[in-house]
Amino acid sequence: MTEFYNANENESKINLDWKKKKIWDKAIKRNNKKEKFYFVDGPPFVTNEVHEGTMYGIFIKDAIIRYKLLKGFDVRAQPGWDTQGLPIEVVVEKKLGIKNKKEIKEFGEEKFIEECKTLVEGYIKLNTDIMLDYGVLWYSKEPYRTYKDEYTESVWYGIKKAYDNDLIYTGLKSTWFCVRCGTPMSNYEVRDKYYDKEDKSIYVLFELEDGRFLLVWTTTPWTLPSNAAVAVNSDFKYIEIENDGKTIILAKEREGLLKELNKEYKILREIDGKELLGLKYKHPFKDLPQIEKNADKLGFVIDGKEISSEEGTPFVEIGTGSGLVHSAPGHGEADYKIGIANNLPILSPIDESGKFTSDAGWLAGEDVLNVNDKIIEYLNKKGILFAEKTIIHKYPHCWRCKTPLISRASQQWFLSIAKIKKQLIEISRGIKWTPNISREMFESWLENAQDWVISRQRYWNTALPIWQCTSCGNTIAIGSKRELLERSGLKEIKDLHKNSVDKVEIKCEKCSGVMRRVPDVMDVWIDSGSASFACINYPASKEEFERYFPADFITEGNDQIRGWFYSMLVMGYIATGTLPYRNVAMHRFVVGEDGNKLSKSEGNYKPITELIKEGYSRDSLRITLLKHSLDEVVVFTLNDLKDDNKTINLFYNLGNLYVSAKEVLKTKDKDEIILKTEDRWIISRWNTVKRNVQTSLDEFRTDFALNSLINFLVNDLSRTYIKLAKSRMFDEEDYTAFKTFEHILKELSIISSIFMPLISEKIFKMIEKRGSTITSDFPAVNETLIDDDLEKRMERTMELLQGILSAREKLKLNLRRPLKRVIIPTVYSSSILEDIIMRLGNVLHLSYELNVEEFDPTIDFSRLKQRMQQNELTVATSKFLELTKETVLRNMREGLKLSSEGKDYNILSTEIDLKPKSKELAQVNAGKDVLVVDSGISDEVNLLWIKREVIRAIQNIRKELGLNRLDTIKVYMTINNEPENSIKNLIMKEILSKTGGEEGKTEKLLKMQDLNISSNNIVIEVYK
Ligand SMILES: [Zn+2]
Ligand SMILES: [Zn+2]
Known about the structure:
By secondary structure, this protein is an alpha/beta fold. The chain contains 34 helices and 40 strands.
């Protein structure tokens, strides 16, 4: 019966059929005007082909969207793509052989932006095709693209609102900066990009005005020209030492450093850190223009006691260096802080390509990444280089181009979060999070959120819509293309990208001067953060906004707490003044078998298009990913995928079973339905499962819903119900099993289409000629058909059956060999389904009482030892020995309640070794139940055993000979040692009816076979 499901062929056919019938559009239209469900796609970044990790998120989205559609919602689901930003530029640069930002200018900004568009569109096409091939049908809707003018207009609207509400300002910001990419990096982008780098570690002598020297340590010699102060910790002790005729000051704790550097020295005296504060030193680069200009503002010893980095490292450390720290407020976040606190000039004479500017005098034009040797040579010549070493330390690098970053202060545009933080936290409490833990993570992120540096100095981003007067400095923000046309008096603007709008001039309202756009573009998170209102083009088009806003559902990975969930809240709140989304499901990442993030260069995953070529079903990839808990990291393995492929195959074979039963029954016109226990049970189970799926999906728990569904499909329906009802299903006299199966299979195909759409559609089509899973209604739950008691009894019954099957295995008795008797002393007959145990276990008699004559019960020490100490065991044993056998056997249901000196020693039934006297009796424990299997032979056992073995033998012969259901055969059977034919007479009729044969012989012997069963020798002859 088991057939192989040719996934690729079947799935492609179904996809094609859906496409031809425009089934998705039909399904969406069907719910027009019903209750709305607005889903906003967190736009995946558009470089590279999607992989298992991306698909995980997409499948969660698809499951919820499909569910809501079945539930009759007017669903708005549109794919989106995050299309701008540095990674795209880097790919285009590589393609064009461009090495830095300057070469982009030479190539032409407009041409460069066109190249970016082409690249992005190529990826959108590639990935959209993959999604549709995987049956993610909402990808057939035209996606929103963050680079499009209509999208940009919405983003501009948000920025204008922020500007008009005084949330946008400029300021100096010391940030990590990539000189190759010419752009600052946020801390977030730098965090895990620290790699080993070899650097110079130098100790420099700064001469105090009184002739003593400060010993100053740095690993960034190129920042010394911008030194503004030397920081000490006023709580530390310092020492003066003499070396080579000089008096040198360093921290007392760091005396060991002198030995490390092989310096001869003598300690002169100890001084307090406090004494050093305010001392003035001769700047080692005092001739540079920027130092000359600021001479009276810099060159002091200051206190660094209170300052530490964002990670909490103190500015003046005691474990490294000399206890005197070179401070350059233009080159480092903590340096910047200490600079502001001490009113120091912020010197940062480095341009965007990493070259010194004229402020750095004779250093102008030098490349900061290669200038260290020159600076060291200069210090050496001046006689103030105390020591020089090389070190290998962790240093941040650009995540795109791997160039070491420099820390540089530059003028940037900020979005004030401080001013709206209270409101953000307040409205965020209206979000419903799944899993709930995400709420705390989000709120704690919000509480610590800093003002947002929104400007970037690149090309392929949304232009910052701020125009500044070249005469009076007045600035304004522009909120739409129309506003820009009106203010500039232009008729048309080609597009809203930098290259185009940089040429647009506006007349200043204050001084009639010329206003030009500030040259910056924006952080791409401003784009994606605007999605809730920008993908419906608010405010240019109000209709969809009024119908759908705010979003009812979004879902992304846990990294988006500080990413998209955050930027969506900020931009949505700024633009609309309200909460932009209501429900969030947060999932974790997918990692490969090696536990690492999926990465092309690691090669730890197979491209998903490969999986199809290798015969894996598209649906099996879905369930492999979706069955994992939303709270846990998903480890993706091919073994899992293979297993889930089997589930798809099993579903397919249920469909085949249905089709062949329908074939057999099609001539019959039956309407009488008489439910048996197994029918009532599977109907109850199915309604329970429907209810579970519905409740779980209402809470956005795709994992719970899917696991409940797969458990039903595999265990309840296939392994249990079909086993019980299969023979009835082909029985022309009993229509009930077939009808029950048909009803459930159809509903199952509709609900499972949420998680495995392609196979589900295939099954649905086996039952229904018209329609589709996609245009169906979610099958309603019928509470009145749920029988909890019946389900509980079945559950216990299945546990007991498991016990019987394992006893059979131990005793090497196959299922065709009837068991004379099974005793279950731990249950009441009313708490199980006797009939089912007897049928599925092939058991002739069931009983619940143990006969004293048959057993010598003792304690099973090996079990009891697992939970009792030796002394407790001794007491329990002696108490047990006081009991009579009858008492022990009579108490098997509740277990034995022993006590001694006020202490209880309870013994569970499964901890009692019944020690049957006869070899034919064997004890097995199943869960909390105890069973005794009687393998003795009786006439009854013998008779049924022979009957079953003979039927099977004849069916095998039929199969071997390639005979089908309708071919009749003649059967002749002899049972030796049975001259009266008493057994034969009892069983022959049933054997013939089950195997489609007649009794007798003809000329044509097809096959003869010997069987030895118990003490009988049987010969079967099959004739044509
Ligand atoms: Zn870079
Ligand atoms: Zn002006």
